[in-house]
Amino acid sequence: MTAILEARDVKKHFRIGGGLFGKAALVRAVDGVSLSITSGETFAIVGESGCGKSTLARVLMRLLDPTEGEVVFDGTAVTHASGRTLADLRRNMQFIFQDPFSSLNPRMTVGKLIGEPLEIHAPQLSAKDRHAKVADLLAQVGLRREHAGRYPHEFSGGQRQRIGIARALASGPRLIIGDEPVSALDVSVQAQVINLLSDLGRDLGLTLILIAHDLAVIRHMSDRVAVMYLGKIVEQGTTDALFEAPRHPYTRALLDAIPDPDDRNRAGRPQIDGEMPSPAAPPPGCAFHTRCAHATDRCRKVVPVPDETSDGHMTACHHWRDIVDAPRQPFPLNRSAATKARLDLYRKATEGAKITQIAQPKPDREEMR
Amino acid sequence: MPDQSPLLSLSKLSLRFKGQPVCAVEDVSLSVAAGEILCVVGESGCGKSVTAMALMGLLPPGAAEIHGGVMTFDGQAFDLTKDRVPSDLRGGRIAMIFQEPMTSLNPVFRVGEQIAESVQRHSGCSRGDARLRSLEMLRCVGLPSPERLLDQYPHQFSGGQRQRVMIAMALANDPRLLIADEPTTALDVTIQAQILNLIRDLQRDTGMGTIMITHDLGVVADVADTVAVMYGGHIVESGPMTEIFENPQHPYTIGLMASVPRLSGPRQRLTTINGTVPSIRQMPSGCRFRTRCAFAAETCSTRPAQAEVGPDHSVACHFAPLEQMLKVAG
Ligand SMILES: Nc1ncnc2c1ncn2[C@@H]1O[C@H](COP(=O)(O)OP(=O)(O)O)[C@@H](O)[C@H]1O
Ligand SMILES: Nc1ncnc2c1ncn2[C@@H]1O[C@H](COP(=O)(O)OP(=O)(O)O)[C@@H](O)[C@H]1O
Ligand code: SF4
Ligand SMILES: [Mg+2]
Ligand SMILES: [Mg+2]
C-alpha cells in the first residue's frame, strides 16, 4: 500500500471584503485537512455545499496554492513544484469538472478538445498518431470515432461528461480528481457515467478521487470515504464501515437525511436542524456543535482531535465512542417479490439476455385514437 | 377505495410548442384529492414543469398551442384550449413554489412586504392584519426570530431559508392546492429533509392537496400518496405510491428504480437505462420510450393505451403485466 498523494495539514483561507462595503473577513474554506490516498484506490470526499470540497480539490491539484500545509504527489512536493516538475504533475493528475458544458470550449471540435492535451503532453506524436489516439480515447469512453468532428453543443449532458473524461485520460494520468462529475446528470445517465468511471479506474489502474454531495453515489463507486464539514474531515473510513456503522453524528445525520426509494419511512428518522454555519465565522470547539444532538460543554469549547482506531477508521468527535453504540435504524431493503423479479428481468435484458414473448399484447392496447 | 371526488383533475392535456413537430406534453391526465400528495416524477425535459405551468395558466403567451385538456378544480371545469385559468386562483386557492425561490421573490422588497402584499391582494384585509399574517406564516415555517426577518431582503437568506419564505408566502392565503416544482432540488440533503418534513406537516395540518414535482424516486418514497411517472411528455405509469414501488410495471419505472444508487443492499454495478432522452425533433412514434427500452419490440411502434393493472394503477406499455407477457429465453 503506497500513498500516491498525501495532504499534510492543508489549509486554504480566503480574505474577503475589506473594501468600501462590509468588513474584512477570513473564509476558512479548508482548515487543516490531512489525507493519504493509496495508489489504485477510489477515494471519495463528501459533504454539503460550501464545506470546502472544491477548494481542497484545487489545492491538491495545485490549481490553488494552500495557505498552509503541503501536498505531496508520489514523493514530489506539489506545493512548490515549478517548471518541468509542475508539467509532469499536470500530466499525471487530471481533473473532471461538474459541469461538462462550461468546461469545454464551445468553438473546438471534440477531436481538437481531446487532442489538445495530447499536443501538450505528448508533442512527439505525429498528427496521424494523434488522430488514432483520439479515436481510441473516444472508444474508451463509449463514444464513436465520427464524434471527433462535432462540437460540444451537439451532445447531451452525459455525452459531454464522457468527452470531459476522454480529455482527462488523454495525457495518460495516474490520478484523476472528479469534482461532482455526475451531480448534474439525470439518474439513468448518472448510472452510465458511474459505471464508466469504475471500469476505467479498474482497467487502467487509475487512482480516483471523487467529490460528491450524494452519499448513495459514493457508496457504489468508492473504496474509502472522507466526510467533510466546514473545512475539516470529520470521519474517514472504508466505504463498508462508514455506511454500516457510521461514527460521527454528522455522518449519521447525512445518511438519515437521504431519501431512499427503499425507505418509505424516512420521516421517522431523526432530523438535524439548522444549517452549516459560514466558514467566515466557524463556531468554536467542534464546528458541528451548533447542529449536534449530542453536543456538550466540552464540544462547545474544545476542538476534537481526530481519533483513529486500529482499522484506520478516523473520527473527529469527543463522544463518538458513546454514540456509536446508540441503536440506529438500519436502511431497509424492502422490495416486494414482484419488484425483485422485475428488476432482475430488466437487468438481464439490459445485459443482453434474450427475452421472449409468451403472450400477445391485447389488441385494445394499441393506438388510442 | 372510497370514491372521493378529486380536488383537482386534469384530463388529456396535450400541447405543442410552436415550431416543434410533436406535442411536448400529450394526453396527460392526473388527479389529486384534498389531503393527498401526488408526486410527478421523471427525468429532466419529460414535461413536468410544462404540465404545471399549463395548470396554472402560466405558459408564456403564444408559445404553445393547447390541443386539448380539461381542468376541474373544486368542481369548476375549465377547457384549457379556450378558457383562461382565472388569475385570482393563482396565489390564492392554488399556490405554487419553484426550485429557485428567487424567481418568485422580488429582490428589492422586504420579505414581510411581499408576503403581506400577496395576502392583501387575495383577502382584501388591512395592512396591519396582512403583516400579522406574514409574521404568523414565517413562524409557522420554522424561521427563527420572524419579527426581525420580516424586514430583511431575500438575499439576506440562505437557500433553505428562502425556500421556507416561499412556502410561507404560498400558504399565506390558505390554498386548497399547492403545486411544488422541485422545491428541494437545489438544496443540500439535510436541508431537503427539513423542507420535505415541513411540507408534509403543513399539508397534514391544512388538508390541502399537493402536486409535488421531482426527479428523485427517493423523494417520491418519502412524501407521495400517489405517483405519476412521466417520460417524453407522456404519463407512462400512475398509481398509489406503494403500488408503484411494490408492483412497478412500466419498463421505464423499473429502469429508473434500477439505476438509482442505493444506501442498502449489495454494492453492485448499477443497472442503467440505455442512451438518453431523444430531443423533441427525434421523438419516436408509438411508445416514446421504445428507443431506450430493454423490452421494445415491433408492436411498440404503435402507441400503447393506458391499461388498468390494479386498483387505480395504470400503465401504458404493450407488455403489461410484464411477467405474463415476457420471459428470459432458455
Ligand atoms: N475564491 C474564493 N474567495 C472567497 N471565498 C471562497 C472562494 N472559493 C471558495 N470560497 C468559499 O469557501 C467555502 C468552500 O467553498 P467550496 O470549496 O466551493 O465548497 P464545496 O465545493 O464543498 O461546495 C465557501 O464558503 C465558499 O464561498
Ligand atoms: N417555452 C418553451 N418553448 C419551447 N419548448 C419548451 C418551452 N418550455 C419547455 N419546452 C420543452 O418542453 C419539454 C418539457 O419541458 P419541462 O416541462 O420543462 O421538463 P421538466 O420535466 O424537466 O420540467 C422540453 O423538451 C422542453 O425543452
Ligand atoms: S464533538 Fe460534540 S458536538 Fe461535535 S460531533 Fe461530537 S458530540 Fe457532536
Ligand atoms: Mg464544489
Ligand atoms: Mg422542470
From TrEMBL, chain A:
Listed name of the protein: Oligopeptide ABC transporter ATP-binding protein
Membrane topology per record: Peripheral membrane protein
Domain of life: Bacteria
Localization, UniProt: Cell inner membrane
Family membership noted in the UniProt record: Belongs to the ABC transporter superfamily.
Annotated stretches, region: Disordered: 256-284
Source organism phylogeny: Bacteria, Pseudomonadati, Pseudomonadota, Alphaproteobacteria, Rhodobacterales
GO CC terms in record: plasma membrane
The UniProt record lists the keyword tRNA-binding: no
Keyword ATP-binding among UniProt keywords: yes
Main location: membrane
InterPro entries: AAA+_ATPase, ABC_transp_ATP-bind, ABC_transporter-like_ATP-bd, ABC_transporter-like_CS, Oligopep_ABC_C, P-loop_NTPase
TrEMBL record, chain B:
Family annotation (PROSITE patterns): ABC_TRANSPORTER_1, ABC_TRANSPORTER_2
ABC transporter domain boundaries: 8-257
Molecular-function annotations in GO: ATP binding; ATP hydrolysis activity
Keyword Ribosomal protein found: no
Coiled coil residues, start to end: none
SUPFAM superfamilies: P-loop containing nucleoside triphosphate hydrolases
Chief place where the protein resides: membrane
A Pfam family annotated for this UniProt entry: oligo_HPY
Membrane topology: Peripheral membrane protein
GO BP annotations, alphabetical order: peptide transport; transmembrane transport
Localization, UniProt: Cell inner membrane
Keywords: ATP-binding, Cell membrane, Membrane, Nucleotide-binding, Transport
GO CC entries: plasma membrane
Sequence similarity: Belongs to the ABC transporter superfamily.
The protein, known as: ABC transporter ATP-binding protein
